[in-house]
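Run log // design_07
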């Protein structure tokens, strides 16, 4: 059986966004306050931040938003 995930995430984009949320104290606290990935993404856009420091868009169509919601709700 072949693992088709990226470090346990659906793909590299989802992994990268989750990595930054979990490992950057400011993003972690901000995401926790937002309560959902959609709120996080929308607020980040409002402040002019549209991608991670690794240049992955917070609005990438490949993102597993359901899994990112779970991540943020569990913070």
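design_07 sequence
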């Amino acid at each position: 059986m072949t693992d088709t995930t990226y470090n346990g995430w659906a793909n590299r984009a989802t992994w990268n966004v989750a990595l930054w949320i979990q490992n950057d104290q400011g993003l972690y606290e901000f995401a926790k306050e937002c309560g959902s990935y959609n709120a996080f993404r929308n607020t980040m856009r409002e402040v002019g931040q549209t991608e991670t420091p690794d240049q992955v868009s917070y609005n990438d169509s490949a993102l597993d938003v359901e899994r990112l919601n779970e991540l943020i709700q569990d913070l």
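Helices lie at 12-23, 25-34, 37-46, 65-73.
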